[in-house]
Amino acid sequence: MPIYEYECADCGEEFEKLVKLSEAAAKPECPNCGGKHTQKRLSTFASHGFAKSAGGSIASCGSSGGFS
Ligand SMILES: [Zn+2]
How confident is the model over 3-14, as a mean pLDDT? Predict the structure, then answer.
């Protein structure tokens, strides 16, 4: 059975769920708020933990010269 990732539109909860192929079209309830406004996310091939916070820190080399 594949694992699908879902995101709740109500509370923003993200969760994974083992889904049978016969149930793949059904939307599961959000485990956090019980809402049904969940949507399947494009599966990010088992890369847990990563992504999410790919913050760019390209503003750390300022203050070059300049008398004040
Ligand atoms: Zn929710």
Answer: 94
Report how far residue 20's alpha carbon sits from residue 17's, in angstroms, rounded to the nearest whole number: 10
Non-local CB neighbours of 21 within 8 Å, separated by 6+ positions: 1, 2
pTM for this one? 0.56
CA of 65 to the centre of ligand 1 (A): 51
Contact 14, 38 (CB under 8 A): no
Which burial class, exposed, middle or buried, applies to 30 when counting CB atoms under 10 A from its CB (0-12, 13-18, 19+)? buried
Centre of ligand 1 to C-alpha 64, Å, is 47
